[in-house]
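Sequence and fold
=================
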Amino acid sequence: MTAPESSQTPGPATSTDVPLPATTYGLQGELFEVPAEAREPLARVVLLTGPSGSGKTRLTRRLGLPVVPMDDFYRDGDHPGLPRRHGMVDWDDPASWDGAAAVAALVDLVTTGTATVPVYDIPSNARTGSRTVELGDARIVIAEGIFATEIIAACRAEGILADAICLSRPRMKTFFFRLARDLDEARKPAINLIRRGLALSLAEPAMYREMQAKGARRMTVDDAERTVLRLAAGLPPEPAE
């Protein structure tokens, strides 16, 4: 079965959308809120999402643009109240992720040209440090991860959203790519990875529907690459057929 190449216009905000961060600027020690519409970003953000194993990271490497991995905003494994499944923390649940911090970092990056983001180690379920991401002269920043759709409405309201793309390819291909990667990186015990992979494959059709309902446009990896390169060149995305 070939992956569909359809796209959808952005949908309305939902109750799962991340709340907007309060953006403040200092002047001689005084802080005051600046409305999103009053700020002109230096660049805009493409939110790149799709099931785990759909090719997001590989695509970002080919594009050569500044990237903020959304996986680095996972909460530490000892954070209270994390959801659990298959005998471990359910890292596929948005409750395991700090969306507000992700939005704040993206706003910093595209309005100031630099941002400090966490470095997260998945095998140890913990943040191990931080790093600085610089915009340079790029027009587009890629924010990549399975939870990128959770911040579509927030990024749009902040005036920094260029596009939201959901990568799509055949389910079995995604399953094997994901499993091979997770086993190679020793992310978790093999039995847990297999159980998780099967559960994700069964849930994939519903996941795509939810991502599209939140405003992501579903497309193949090749179509996504062409779309992002057009945006990076200052061209509008091609209209949906």
Notes: The radius of gyration is 18 Å.
